[in-house]
Amino acid sequence: MGAVLDSLSQPFFRRALLEAVLVGVLAGIVGVHVLLRRLPFFVVAMSHATFPGVVLASILGTSLFLGGSAFGLLVVLALVVLGTQRAVDDTSLIGVLLAGSFALGILLQSARTGGSKELSAFLVGSVLTVTPADLVTTALVGVVLLLGLGLTHKELVLTAFDRGGAAATGYRLRLVDLGLLAAVTVAMVTTIPVVGTLLAVALLTVPALTARLWTDRIPPAMAIAAVVGAGSGVVGLALSATYDIAAGGAIALTTAAAFTASFVLTLPRSHRPRNTPLDSLDDLHGAPGTRGRGQSGV
Amino acid sequence: MLRALVQVLLLAVVGGLVGVHVLLRRLAFVTEALQHTVFPGIVAAFLLGQSLLLGALAAAVSTVVLLVVTTRARRLDQDGVLALLAAAAFALGVVLVSRGRSFQHDLTVLLFGRILTVDDRQLVETAALALVCVVTLVALHKELVLLAFDETAAAALGYRPAVLAVVLNVLVALVVVAAIRSVGSVLVVAFVVTPAAAARSVTRSVGGAMVGAVAFSAVCGWIGLAASYELSVDHGLDLASGATVVAVMTLGFLAAVCVGAAARLVGRWRTASLLAS
User: Fold this and answer.
1) For B123-146, how does the pLDDT look when each residue is reduced to its tens digit (9 = 90+)?
2) Which residue ranges form the domains of chain A, and what is each CATH number?
3) What is the DSSP letter of A273?
4) B8: CATH
5) Which of A120, A213, A252 is nearest residue B91 as measured by Cβ atoms?
6) What range does the domain containing B27 cover?
7) Distance between CA B41 and CA B55 in Å, rounded?
8) Where are the beta strands (DSSP E) in chain B?
9) What's the pTM?
10) Structural domain tally of chain B?
């Protein structure tokens, strides 16, 4: 504990704590939407796909955040366009694009001389070097994203659970889908400074998955996920300061520990084996009239 | 250089064959997750001075077991658990490496692999793993294909879908183990998914896709290695060889998609002109 208290007196460590908490809350809440739409593989893919954008931005000296987002959106577009060719299914397509764009990132990186240090900072994050400007960016992006998600909550949940119904009601499914994919991509780019491209997926899925173990309802799941995300940030940083290990890795491992503990604690409640792959969605959906109404209110 | 080429060709054969099944059963995410979960096994073996192969195998087997256990809980779907396993395992690997002395260097080598420093022993190990995979695939070909297209019929005929699914997952794990040291822990998925997807966009038959995937992967592997060698020797452009191979594969895939789309257009046009005449 001594090491943690010592570190607390350092401004860079306090900034790191604040950044980790902000990102934890944001990623936790967005993560619930990721799980609702079964997007974990998409998140993994985007975490790799934004990599070349980040490398390019660092070569050109522009904002890493912009570079990552721009390239990520480009890959989303490629996914949508190639998806219309029915030869290959979406999962495989995501796999191809993720490996391809990651390879591109490595090539760009290896073509410039000696970028090994920066490379590993992108890959596993360097939360301890967060600047006040980064903090402001994170806070602004977070507020905008959460406002957007809050205002469109009803639409997002409806289109996740009942696509036919949503289309019949007159919602534009593609527009909603694209909007959410863009929001997830932006949230992911925000988490990159904290845990790195490869571990952003930890913050965007594990807290939400942990919350899923405790509740069937969406607003409580978001609250729990936000707490788990922020808590993991704090605990992970403390562990990293105490044992001198990589901060991003420590944060991701803490989320995994929270999940494991919840899994064991909730085992008695989840004794019933799953019947179908869709079972978990059905549970969330609930019987009409019981939970359905509660979900739509924010 | 010759060894690197042999290694790439071996991986092309086994990756292409397994890849077609991965594509049929939509296991791309499982492959992606496995390449990350094998990472801490390799790091641990590296730090302890044990055989990297053993570490990778142990990690791969534990992943498959954990996956089977956790997806039995009714609230969790497989995608979420895969993301969790991949992230947690990868984090563990990074934390382990960060305790070592030369963090940056080791991390880069372990993540991106070193196909140019493959030695004879590694080649023999890859060949052995490839042999196991190919023999299993040939022996179970009929069952696996049936299962992919019609799970109910397979179950009715007395096959066990669950057992076959685990066998396939283990095969994917073996390919990942075989490939990971030379291509690194991030790009393995390309050797499995990309060739099969490319072959799939030009042919519909399973056998054809397998032949096509292996050929595609071998050609791309050769071009990629040669290109990265030429560029680094003649032009001083130090391109990572594994990444170059994967980049060539991705370009090849895009070309295959275009060819497939064009072939379908021509086919449609022919049908239309036949109908008109």
Assistant:
1) 888 888 888 888 888 888 888 888
2) 2-265 (1.10.3470.10)
3) P
4) 1.10.3470.10
5) A252
6) 2-276
7) 4
8) none
9) 0.76
10) 1
